[in-house]
Amino acid sequence: MLVLAAGAAAHANKPVPFGDRVAGPGDAEATPVNSQSVDSADLDLKVVGPALEAYHKATGERAWSYRREGAEALSVAMAGDNAIVVWDDGLVTSVRPGDHEVRWHRAVPGLADYLRAAGEPGADKRTEAQRKQTATQRAAAALHTVQRAGSPWLAVVTPNLTMGLRDVDGDLRYNDRPANGCLYDPLRTVHTDYAVLIPRSCTNGSGVAVSGGITGYRLDSNGWAMSTGPTATIKVLDASRVEITDGPIVPPRVFDTKAAAPETACGAVDAPFAAVRPQDGCADPSAQSNPNPTADVPAATDAPAATGDPAAPAGPAAPATDQPDPAQP
Hints:
five-stranded antiparallel β-sheet; single chain; mainly beta
């Protein structure tokens, strides 16, 4: 009976099953959803302590704060006009800043363990500040929002699982696990306005890295995969293109996530038929010839004076001596 009473009391203290609590200035209860709405562009969103807080840009005053009992907010990113929050208990939630409505909740298997570095060497020896720093860094690396026009979505990445969620309702659109012996690397993961690109590394039975790859995920079309070394890096160039560097021997390559195809280098045999050509285009080789071939040739310091006939060969240089020329009388 005591256990049941304690459970009932705890449940009564939670306004909703996920422990959500939205408060206004001074920790007063926030005004009802939709009773007062502001433009999300007029708010600054910050993770402060255990909560997500919204401040009016014009005045700096706090508009509202969003907390969850027994959990701590670690990172926030925008998906369209909505804020996506990663919590330390492995929950991901969406809140609309303009009227502080919590829109949906999704639990991600293994996310809490990844954030806490559970079971990793040395994790139990870290200080509280180090654990908080690790969790915050990993939360930011795990969450990727794709600003696809009209239909933004998000991906959550852990070493053993990635999930894609539609922002409009939090619906799970895909989940994927790496192959046996392989792990995803959230810290190397990047996103563009069209896709999320997740590197993976694979090891043999002795734990030695033997290969790697990059998998691209989209919601509006099929994804793709490419083989790489175990430490390939990805650099975002613009809204659609990334540059993939795979060690000192293989030249960097550009991949277009909108076209889902690699960029073909100028001068390649198949360049005229490529799906993606370099953004700056390929210059016409005939235009590379110098119209004035002598313009860049430095004048010889000991050259004789020009003759009236430009085609005439240059005469011998003057003798390097002060003696008279024996051929002269």
